[in-house]
Fold:
Amino acid sequence: MRTPLLAANWKMHKTVAEATAFTTEFLPLVAGVDDAEIVLAPPVTALAAVAGACRGSNVAAAAQNVHWEARGAFTGEVSLAMVQDAGASHVIVGHSERRHLFGEDDVAVNRKVRAVLAGGLSPIVCIGETLAEREADETAAVLDRQLDGGLAGLTADEIAAIIIAYEPVWAIGTGRTATPEQAQDAHAHIRGRLAAVAGQRAADRCRLLYGGSVKPANAAALASQPDVDGALVGGASLDPHSFAEIVGRGRPR
Ligand code: PEP
Structure:
């Protein structure tokens, strides 16, 4: 039995005051939820404030990115120890915006995943194809390449413990959501690849989130698919009532 996980990715939105106001309003809305993990990923400047506000609640905090080195001359970067110190328990790794806007490749993703695991935090590893790749029938090959590269060297136990977010690039921030069937097809493929690499037991334990224009209106249909274990939500997670509704409807039952 996999515990559902609903994660909010705020990207480059919200000051400390805005993030704190969101959290104050959001926590009572989900206070009764005890059958899912709920994670908020604010910008790094608001991470300590959000993590502090969530302490003792059923909501955890995540960083949106991290560098793989422990310290050094890496202007603008933050280390795992820094986000851990700020209160993060999860780290989003390899988001498509990191890959496509900032040139992050599978080698970098793999270094980050290993750094997050070595520090005892949970990586949420994002993978997904572009529209051109889908139209060229390359979705499965792209997912395999990103899984094999991003998870290289991980043990079966580590693969069982990580979280993977399938986020088709054509669905992120576009309002165009994958159909529940498209999401299920991709998730089943991912789980099959994990089983081939790490064994069926690890594959069955690994949680697979769908991301890409998830909203209150489509969350339940996506969550009804057998291999969809929750959602990674961007735009619709910026409003506390909207994200609370997604938590309410987007839990696989
Ligand atoms: C995301 O940022 O990971 C995402 C899926 O964004 P949106 O929900 O806005 O498509």
Notes: The first strand starts at residue 5 and ends at 9. The chain has one domain: 5-249. Residues 134 and 140 are 9 Å apart (CA to CA). The two ends are 11 Å apart (CA to CA).
